[in-house]
Amino acid sequence: MEILELFSVDIKIILFNIISFIIFLLLLRKILYRPVLKMLEKRRKKIEKSLKEAKQISAKMEKTDQQVEKTLKKAKKQALLIIEKAKENADKEKNKTKEQAREEIKQLKDKTAKELQEEKANLVNEARQEIVNLVVELSKKIIKRNIKQEDQAKINQELLELIKRR
Amino acid sequence: MHISLAADKVFELGGLPITNTMITVWVVMAMVLVGAYLVGRNIQSVPRGMQNVAELILEGLYNYYNSVFQDKKKTKKYFALLTSFFLIIVIGNWTGILIELFPIYVQAPLAHKSHEVHLLRGINTDLNVTLSWALISVGLVQFFGVSSLGFFNYFSKFINLKGPIDFFVGIIEIISELSRIVTFSFRLFGNILGGGIVLLIISEMTSSFKVSGVNLPLFGTPIPFYGLELFVGFIQALIFTTLTLVFIKMATEEHH
Question: How far apart are the first and last CA of chain B?
Answer without folding.
Answer: 54
